[in-house]
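Contributing new records

If you add data, match the layout below exactly. Sequence lines come first and carry their own label; structure lines follow with theirs. Keep one chain per record. Anything else will be rejected by the validation script.
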Amino acid sequence: MKPSNRLRRPFIPTLAAIITRYVSEVSIRKKGAEAERSIARVWLGTRLAGRPIDRIRNTDLIELRDEWLKDKAAATVVRRLAFLSHVFTVLRKDWGWTELANPAQLVRRPSVADSRDRRIFDQIKLRGVSEGECPRNELQWIIQSSRSLEMPTIAVLASETSMRRSEICGIYREHIDLVHGVVKLFNTKNGTSREVPLSPFAKETLRVYLTGKPLRGKVFTMAPGSVTRAFIRARQRAREKYESLCSKYGRRANPSYFIDLRLHDLRHESTSVLATIFDPHDMAKINGQKDLRMVMRYYHPRGRELAQKLARSPRGRRQLATLKAQRLEQRLLRHPMFDIPTNDHTHALK
């Protein structure tokens, strides 16, 4: 038997060793380093962590995929598989393991339905209950239910400016212009700096929050993940308060309120509102999108909003004026003063 010319490696590292190296050398240079560290911890806790990398098969990953899909969202499973796939890609391209196959490429990814059109409910009412006791807006309930000092301000900015969670958490005081109502963002998701206009409500919320705080440095101390967890806790408390209020007045609670609202939905809400003010190109600049199709992904107008916009348009105003004139003419024709005399009556007058 001919001896192989391929150099034999004296040591085959385990998956845990490779992932640890990947996190320290590759993930650390990414904007999503924190998210990748979280995914890495998941892989380090699996039964494959102690296995040599050349003994990991696609069938092993398929078993894990099916286990995760029992209680995890498809998007979560896809992110975990994508992370491992890139680990093997770096192994082969950058770390010299050219003969190693990538088992993650042979695993079918679950389909992800990640498009969302959730808007904030803004007509929460209980008959006979004042607005002070029963806020009309879901976000007002959540802000009042939060125990965090920073999350309410972050939530308001997200719902008013379309900024991403990580962008809000990375704002510096010296980049806020409260005179002109502008926030300058330098550390963005797509790497392009931009200026975001502040609505009067957002500007006043920031002004109140910044009172007595340093004039330089980061505005918020919370990490993006902490903001999401604080939002979830506040949302759950808001739902409990709402159900308690309904029980107090003997009303049936609406099952749709608060249940599936996410922090990222506030960006959808803001985009849907601002899109009625700015044209698509301005909206893309505000949103931080380079593709107008992505702006449309965040735009979810309500039917009644579109109907109001149509009625207020030049076409709608012309049609309303025509209908108003027709109704006036019909009322005048029905008035006794405008009754046309019959021929007999006219002949008698002559």
